[in-house]
Amino acid sequence: MKLMYLTAAVVISAVTLAAQTNTDRPLPPGDNPPPTVFDRIKNAGTAKDFDSAAYAIVCDSTVNTVNDLGVTFTDNYVLYKVLTEEGCKELSVLSQGYEPLTNYVEFREINIIRDSARIPVALDGVRAVPAPQHGIYWADSLKLVQLPRLRPGDGIEAVTFRKGFSYALLGSGAPPDERYVPPMPGQYFDIVRFEATVPIVCKKYVLKLPADKRLHSQVYNGPMFSSTTYTQDTTVYAWWAEDVKAWKPEDYRPDATDIVTKVVIATVESWEAKSRWFFDVNKNQFEVTGAIKAKVDEIFAEAGVTNGTEEEKAFELVHWVAQNIRYSGQTMGEGEGYTLHPGSMIFEQRSGVCKDIAGMLVTMMRAADMDSYAAMTMAGSRIEDVPADQFNHCVVALKKADGSYVMYDPTWVPFNKDIWSKFEAEQHYLIGSPEGEGLNRIVYSPAEDCPLRLTSSAKILADGTLEGRFEFEGEGTMDSRLRGLASWFRMSEVGDYLRGMLHNLSDRAELLAYRHGDVLDFHKAMRWEIDYRIPEYAQFIDSAYEFKSPVMRFTSDNRILFRPGAVEWSEERHDDVFFYTTQLLDAKETIKLPSGYEITGEKKSDKLDETYASCEGTAKMSGKALTISQRVAIKRRQIPPDGYEGFRKVMQEVKKFAGTSFRAEKGGAK
Q1: Percentage of residues in the chain having pLDDT higher than 70
Q2: How far apart are CA 336 and CA 347, in angstroms?
Q3: For a tag on the chain, would you pick the N or C end, based on fewer CB atoms within 10 A?
Q4: DSSP code string of 88-138
């Protein structure tokens, strides 16, 4: 889902040691001289001072100099200190990622700082190798250098130079500046993180812009120092932070840019200007060919919507594109990453990344006389107010007669009944239009939009065997997950996966049969039926049957059916919890007991209604059967730390109720 190139903040961006000292001015008479690199390593501390970290970033200093064309020249100085043997391994190879079409990078100096010696590392050992790639094959590469054997206490200083506007790149000598003019000529943007998974003693980022360029900037997720100075031709901006603790990412969290301290900067005038640029750079990519028009007519005829509404036709088109354009990105050379491939090319090749899949839908919608446009969004993270390139995904906007837009995402709806995946609720997006659009956001999707409705009917035989059937269907993200159970695996593997799900109930569980709906019928909610048998499920103890609810155990520890219940939530948490989606679990169960046996009274879970989650459940006799109901709602896709305690309380209650033991006695409890 790569649309725009990642910013220089994602790769490490750069600076000189002078910039890191927080001043480029001469020292006043009588002041102490600045610390040397040996002083910095000596005074940085040990693993004990850094909570047993493997290594620390003692100094990370970056100076970006931008010319009138928007070409950026980046000088970077990084000083590491090895703290443990593990740090020796982690820092044994230094690397820089690059993409050959957009950036140039070179290691200019690398030294090992050991005791009072600076040991140079020969740069003829630098190697360029292909970067690991999956789904997107755009010639991304790595520049690597193997360091000599390190020791705890060593320092490593690395000086690099970059030129361009995105990833780093390798070449034999720096190519001409014109090659690295950014997609929006003359403009600059960056997203700079000031936290890492290791401690940072000091990090500074300096930006030198031509005096006539205006800058938007804002700091998010924490405080930092900043300054602005001027020369006749240049405005110099600086941001820096000191003594930054290591960020320890937790599971089920949003993207790091939503959490860590960062500064977002951009020179582009407004979101409207960005919108117009995105429209202009892609306006010629949606030419409708005869073959595409014929396919659109065929799709409508087969679906019986030739005379249907625009909504009905758009529904058929988004699902045809989703199911028929494979996700696989091939480079087209210059402009890759922000220019959509022509619709005719994608139609012929039947493959592309998100921008191409979206472009295919725009083209087919226009073939059907629909007023559609490409749009940019950020999957899995928010977009801040500053009009920087904060996008990683491309989608489609269909303009209605009243001027409003309906959003479609063919990349995220393969095997999904929706036109826009509920996994993308509350995401920001920017439509490319000739008039220029502002930044918009998808509306909140309540838990009721993503229900899992599960019915369990079971009976306990006289020998304690449990025989039963689970019937369940889903909407929204749960529809997608239930279709996934049939589409993620080979047909021969589906049964094995279902047996694994049943083993949450018992290792003796037997899968008898299963049935599911048509995974390609997007007009109906996806359904499953699972028949099973578990010998000795109910234990006969002291003249009574003891057992637990199958439905609650089936769902409470299953990542597909109810992901929050499959996690052991720690008592404390510092990151937001992020699930991508809300969810409603609505489960009902009937368990027929052996003749003459019953459970008296009623058992309930605590009814909790917290800000971000809620639950309630009951279990009681109804005639000759035990009936159980459970309803759990995850109300928001993202839960901040101040809402975590209430969320965890609900999850604990859900697990507690799932662990309830029932005792059926002859004639009822005495």
Answers
A1: 90
A2: 18
A3: C
A4: HHHTSEEEEEE-TTTEEEEEEEEEEEETTEEEEPPGGG-EEEEPP-SSEES
Q: Could you give the number of structural domains in the chain?
A: 3
Instruction: Write out the residue range of the structural domain in which residue 121 sits.
Output: 17-267
pLDDT per residue as tens digits for the range 604-646: 989 999 999 999 999 999 988 999 999 999 999 999 999 999 9
Instruction: List the structure tokens of 444.
Output: 């909140």
Q: Are residues 644 and 597 in the same domain?
A: yes
Q: Within a domain: residue 10?
A: no
Could you give the 3-state DSSP secondary structure of residue 167?
A: coil
Same domain, 437 and 544: no
Q: What is the pTM of this model?
A: 0.89
Which two tokens mark 437? 């659009």
Q: pLDDT-derived band of residue 177, with 50, 70 and 90 as boundaries?
A: low
**Could you tell me if 238 and 329 lie in one domain?**
no
3 state DSSP class of 83: coil
Domain CATH for 209: 2.60.40.3140
Q: Which of 234, 267, 300 is the last residue of a domain?
A: 267
Euclidean distance between CA atoms 308 and 208, whole angstroms:
57
- Between CA 575 and CA 640 the distance in angstroms is 7
Residue 89 is given by DSSP the state H
Predicted local confidence at residue 311, as pLDDT: 97
**Which has the closest alpha carbon to 133: 11, 2, 246?**
2
Residue 627 belongs to domain with CATH number: 2.60.120.1130
Tell me which of 201, 234, 267 is where a domain ends.
267
User: Mutual orientation of helices 310-324 and 354-367 as an angle, nearest 10°?
Assistant: 140
In three-state secondary structure terms, 156 is strand
How, if at all, do strands 583-592 and 577-578 pair? unpaired
Residue 123 has pLDDT above 50, yes or no: yes
Contact 176, 163 (CB under 8 A): no
Residue 425 in tokens: 């609720």
441-461, pLDDT tens digit by residue? 999 999 999 999 999 999 999
